[in-house]
Every structure is written in C-alpha cells, then in structure tokens.
Amino acid sequence: MSQANAVAGKVVLITGASSGLGESTARLLASLGAKLVVVARRAERLQQLVAEITAAGGEAVYQVTDVTKANDLEAAVNLAVSTYGRLDVMINNAGLMAIAPMSARRVAEWDQMIDINIKGVLYGIAAALPVFEKQNSGHFITISSVAGVKVFSPGGTVYSGTKFAVRAINEGLRHEVGAAIRTTTILPGAVESELKHGSKHAASAEFVQAFYQQNEIPADSVARAIAYAIEQPANVDINEIVLRPTVQEF
Fold first, then answer.
1. In this structure, is residue 250 part of a structural domain?
2. What is the phi/psi pair of residue 115, to 5°?
3. Are 104 and 201 in contact (CB under 8 A)?
4. Which of 124, 16, 22 is nearest to 69 (CA)?
5. Model pLDDT for residues 184-197, shown as the tens digit of each residue
6. What is the pLDDT of residues 78-87, one digit of tens each?
7. Structural domain tally of the chain?
8. Catalytic residue numbers?
9. Strand order in 181-188's β-sheet?
10. Does residue 17 lie within any of the structural domains?
11. What range does the domain containing 191 cover?
C-alpha cells in the first residue's frame, strides 16, 4: 500500500500547527490526502495555513487553542468530530524549550514547560481518548526529543525532564490502550523550528542558537517520520522514532 493511500482520508489533529514541525507535518499530511484540524494560539498563521492547504485541494479547518487549557483541547477534538465525523490521529506537538542552568532559578519557565510539554500532552490525551475508545481505533503521536533519551546539557535539565516524562506517559498509555489504539513517540534532534527561540537566559540562548546553526535539519524530516508511523497497517504500531541530524553528536 502506498503512503498516500494509507494516509488519505484520515482525520488528523495537530497541536502547535502554526509553525515548525506542526506546520510542516500539516502540509505533508494534507498533500497525502489527510483531513486536518490544525490548532495553535496564533489565528493569523492558522488562517494562512488552512487557506494554502485548501487552495491546493486539501481539507483543513483550524481553531485557536491553548494546550495549557484542557477545555481548549476538548473543543478542538469536538471540532474534528463535528466537521469530519471522527478523529483518527492526535498529534501532540506543541512545546517549549527554555534552556537555562538550574542555578538561574527560572521557576516561571519551569512552570511554562511543565504546563505546555507535559500537561498539554495529557490534556490532548484526555480529550481524544474517549473518541478513540468509542471508535475502537486511533493513534496518539507525541513529540518528545532526543533530550528525552539523554539529558540535554548544559542548561536543559528541566526541559529534558519534561521530555522524559512525555516518553514515559506515551509508553504507559500504550500498555493501557494498545490493543486497539496506537501510540508513537517521536524524538527529534535539532530540527528547524521556533523551539530554538524559547530560551531567554542570554548565555544559554547563545549556546542554543550556535548548536542549531551547526546541526539543524528541515522540519519536514520529522513530518516524514510522522507520516511513516501513520501509514502502517492497523496491526503495526511504531512505538518510537529517534532521529537526529547526521552531524549531531548529542
């Protein structure tokens, strides 16, 4: 079965879809015939994305959504079901990477990363799981990071903590619902996105920018990995994909 035939017609909800990995994934899946619900906080970016997808013959709707609010994600899932009649894939992509040493005690940034990177994923699961259980099918795809495999240092302790948590949550979810519902964790290395701009600590931000400049690969590298996981037959579950730029040592 070709990738296009396997993806075509699937209803996919993508968080953090206004830029980076989310936007790139939306464009690729739309080109393969998926029906999209794209959500993020920036309405203008979402409007433009949906306009371009539909102009190219694809199907997409959008909703302004803050993943730190459980009700917003419930509304996004409801939009998918009311528009397309079902939901096949929930891509928990929204994330924040605020790199800084623990000694800087940037507690507000810790809270933000926990709220977006962990709670945002949990809220996405909570919103989509009842639909998947009713359908007896569905697919959670969650974006972690290579920082969820090895602690990103210097300055990435809390960020890595959130990404280790995401990996554990998705694996635990697989044990609980894996008989009918698929779970995939994507763990990318340095990929072109706005994630690299999340650090406000000056020295850490400089380090991150240099790291990405030396290593990053295009966002569609991750989009293709996501499409690969979706295209598999229903009895095949790609549980984890770790991908790095060839030149990245970490």
1. no
2. -65, -45
3. yes
4. 124
5. 999 998 877 766 67
6. 999 999 999 9
7. 1
8. 159
9. 59-64, 35-40, 11-14, 89-92, 138-143, 181-188, 240-243
10. yes
11. 3-243
